[in-house]
Amino acid sequence: MERSLHQTSGSEQHKRLVVGWFSFTCCEDSTILLTELLNDHLDEWKKVVEFRHLKALKTQNSLAGLDVAFIEGAISSDSQANEARQIRENSKYVVAIGACACTGQPSTSRNQFASEQINERIRWYLSHFDYGKEVKRLGEVIQVDDMVRGCPMKVPSFLQTLNKYLELFGIAKHAS
Amino acid sequence: MPRRNIAIDTITKIEGNAGLKVVIEDDVVEDLQFVISDYRRFFTTAVRGKRVVAVPSFLSRICGTCSVAHLFASLMAIESAQGITVTEQTKALRRLAYDGLMIRDHGLHLYFFVLPDVLGVDSILDVSDDPDDLAHKLLHDSFDIKRLGTDISNAVVGAAIHAPWPTVGGFLRNPDPAKFPDLIDRLEAVRPKVLRGIDTFFGWDASLVRNTDYLGLRNDTRFDFLEGDVVNSNGRRIARPEFKNYLQYVQIPHSHAEGYRFSDTGEDYLVGALARINLNRDLLHPRTKDYAASYLSAFPSNNVYHNNLAQAIEVLQCVDDAIDLLRIIHVADEKPVRTQTTAGTGVGVIEAPRGLLYHMAKVNDEGVIEDYDVIVPTAQNQINIENDLKDYFNENLDKDEETLRANAESIIRAYDPCMSCATNFLKIDMIRR
């Protein structure tokens, strides 16, 4: 990565891809993998990506004007579905990240429970909080533009997808 | 004084989703709720009916960051249920992989989540690009530390997240020792960076002192995350299969996770690095004890922020332990140990990065799971976290709301809580709080 590519002159400032990263019901393995990718890519990405919403790393987060929302995890409730819809409304593109978002599995395991498995204690949790009747993959709740599959996400596929959007927004020429 | 509510909807820079609600009336905290809001996936119910060989890999999906801990605890529970004794090679490789897990997991928490609190910035994204700036150096130290932890895991168990090689009785594939010399060189090279981190967290003057009990695993021969008995601050020693009998389950109406009290005292307790260093610092690697001697003077400590310092010292411990193991380990072409399938119940109790982790597997005579139970560290710490926060708010109500919020988050962050872990299980005995 050459620093000179990202230095600004005067008031000129390169546009950066405005990104949000979100997690719903899952083990957050792809978020952890993202933090691992930052070992090698943080210096480079800071110049071409603005992480506007990244709860794992920031306290000051905003949904406004996202170019791409990367969403990990399955949807367990109406409140999560509403949150996903809100993200969709604020993002030009949405990418489902990892197996739980793309396929629902393994977070949808409870959808297959036989009635005798849903005992009193499970019922208490399901009724005490706003659990939906079924856990859903992200695509059942909002329109998804791309998917990065894997458990955790496949790194080459993620990098390819990120680069695709950098190019789409005319930012790739500034990236390494 | 009017009634006052403070709410933090989303606590950031932690693993998973949680919030905090505080009600203050007449200058006293009337109610405080640390709300773990990740939705349960009921994995311990989902594994019933699965064959035992499929279960550890499935349960590693409980948590992305400490998946190796759940994998190993599950393997040990099932091996115990099946009467399987693994080889010394398997024990050594698991120990080595665990050093890699601790290095990477503590590195993530310390540098990506906590370091911004130390530096007074929002995020690592705000750290200076000036290579001479200490914050920049620390952040780039963390890249090397975390990468090394991940590479140890990659070399020994096939991946740092949801490792594919470990199986019931041993390894599906043995690691290639040709990769070990490079790891030794890198571990030696990273030691000064680890020490710089220890010095940073030692020098941070954040403090919240509250007397509590500490529980951790103790192996009298070495500082160990995988073998030993459970001990507490008063010297009570509990064999691992008995551990659950000493825990009082507490259902917490406002949280998707449960809480626990220790039956000996009836009180809350803390698990994790602070407990381990308080209880076991005499067992640290000699080289770690030597290099960290001045920092170890802070222990025993009742300052919850010293959980961060304890983790930083554990990173050095794992670096030194891994160097030793990589130098002596001989990897033979072993096959997994298997026995004839029998019905039985087994327990695995280990130290996850955040503290004691309990897995129990009940297996039928066809090798199928009949019952499964998991108790995770964050659930064990939940009541302790709330009691710490009550103390903090009661003693600091004169501070402005922004300060209260920021400090409350940093206290919670010091525990390194993991909500993904905390919301997958159901307990059997229900006691209304």
Considering the chains and any ligands shown, give keywords for the structure:
heterodimer, A: 176 residues, alpha/beta, Rossmann fold, 5-stranded parallel β-sheet, 5 helices, 35% helix, 22% strand, elongated, disordered N terminus, B: 433 residues, alpha+beta, Cytochrome-c3 Hydrogenase, chain B, 4-stranded mixed β-sheet, 3-stranded antiparallel β-sheet, 13 helices, 42% helix, globular, disordered C terminus
What is the N-to-C order of secondary-structure elements of chain B (H for helix, E for strand)? EEEHHHHHEEHEEEEEEHHHHEEEHHH
**What's the story with the biggest beta sheet of chain A?**
5 strands, parallel
Shape, per Cα inertia axes of chain B: globular
Strand content of chain A: 15-25%
Number of helices of chain A: 5
| Unreliable spans of chain B | 424-433
By CATH reckoning, the class of the largest domain in chain B would read Mainly Alpha
**Overall geometric form of chain A:** elongated
Structural notes for this entry:
The complex is a heterodimer of chains A (176) and B (433). Chain A has 176 residues and is α/β, with parallel strands linked by helices. Chain A has a single domain, classed as NADH:ubiquinone oxidoreductase-like, 20kDa subunit (Rossmann fold, 3-Layer(aba) Sandwich), CATH 3.40.50.700. Chain A has five helices and seven strands. Chain A has helices spanning 29-48, 78-90, 98-102, 120-128, 155-168, and strands at residues 17-23, 49-54, 66-72, 75-77, 91-97, 131-136, 146-148. Mean pLDDT of chain A is 89; it is low at 1-12. A four-stranded mixed beta sheet of chain B has the order 8-7-6-11. In chain B, strands 1-2-3 form a three-stranded antiparallel beta sheet, covered by helices on one side. A three-stranded antiparallel beta sheet of chain B has the order 12-13-14. With 433 residues, chain B is an alpha+beta fold. In chain B, a hairpin with a 4-residue loop joins strand 7 (229-232) and strand 8. Chain B has helices spanning 43-46, 55-59, 67-82, 88-119, 134-157, 180-203, 273-280, 286-291, 293-296, 306-328, 377-395, 401-414, 419-422; strands at 4-8, 18-25, 28-36, 166-167, 170-171, 213-218, 229-232, 237-238, 247-250, 259-262, 269-270, 344-352, 355-363, 369-375. Mean pLDDT of chain B is 93; it is low at 424-433. Chain B has 13 helices and 14 strands. Chains A and B meet through helix 1 and helix 4 of A and helix 1, helix 4 and helix 5 of B.
